[in-house]
Give the backbone structure.
Amino acid sequence: MLRRGLFNRTLNISNQLIVLNYYGTMKEAIVQPDLQVDIVDSEIPVPKDDEVVTKVVVSGSNPKDWKRPVMSKQAMNSGDDIAGVVHQVGRNVYEFKPGDRVAAFHQMMAPGGSFAEYAVSWAHTTFHIPNHTSFEEAASIPLAAMTAAIGLYQRFEGLPLPWHPTTKPIPLIIYGAASAVGAYAIKLAQLSNIHPLICIAGRGIPFVESLITPSKGDIILDYRSGDQKLVSDLKSAISKAPGGKVEYAFDAVSENNSFHNISQVLDPSSGQISLVLPGKDFSAIPASITKTTTMVGAVHDALDQQQFQKATGSRTGNTDFGYVMFRFFGRGLAEGWFRGHPTEVREGGLGGISSALKDLKEGKASAVKYVFRLEETQGVERYRTN
């Protein structure tokens, strides 16, 4: 019979307390390259010195969760968005303790993903969530919100941080505005007082309307009218923007001609575009436009240095930015000026992952994040707050 959960015994040896841990098993979802999912019994992870192990109450999902196993042809637990209660922390962790309500960003491709009863995160990509924030909402935040934050503030040169908002107009194009990443880009831009926002969306236009500020010049353009019409509409909108030009574009789609359309309207001498998909052919973007790829995994990789780090030898960079922004998100949730993305709970817990990833692959999700309640998984005990 398999023993579940953590059992410990504390010994006093030479005046040192030593905790001996005996771990049981947990349910874990392994996504196959054909997007079928096997639910297996795995060992409950043990945190390293700087890690947090969380009992997952709700796991989020992202398009990369189907792309990774399909493109790599490898089976894996591809989930990265964690929301739950701290189970155990490593010896260097000082901000969290067992029982804390948290959300966290799991390190992509590492063991301990969020499609399981227990998941692993580094302490610096874990943050507290207030009691009034649901686990479902919290699970919608980590990867998507951090992708938007890195794209706006680490990849672009010149955009003001949200705690030092600008007082001058800064036009910004956000392509894919109804996606989770695009929506978080809008929310962060609003906090930075970046306007006018030229947002591009389709089915999710009604949702985007709830995020923008038309009185500050924000508008929405419909990409479904075709590329030629969209480029014409973009040029018209830009001609009415302060200065008559746009220097910044955040492309939360980065395929299907999105960057090609953007490159036709960005300022050719000072334009900057931030893209979210690696490995694509971006040769359609003129060489005079500065292009960068937003890799959210940079918050886990101290070697992924910014140009300023290479030029100055600075010891701080993306990992420190991630530490600060995740705590900023938590504070915003507590104070009410930051919110997660709309969610749709897929039935069956881990058993609902396969159909959800297939729907993501087919582009069925619009202005919504698919999330999974672990307690709905067959064989998993219901989470209780007491």
In short: The first helix runs from residue 64 to 72. The chain is about 25% helix and 25% strand. Residues 1-22 have pLDDT under 50 and may be disordered. The first strand starts at residue 6 and ends at 13.
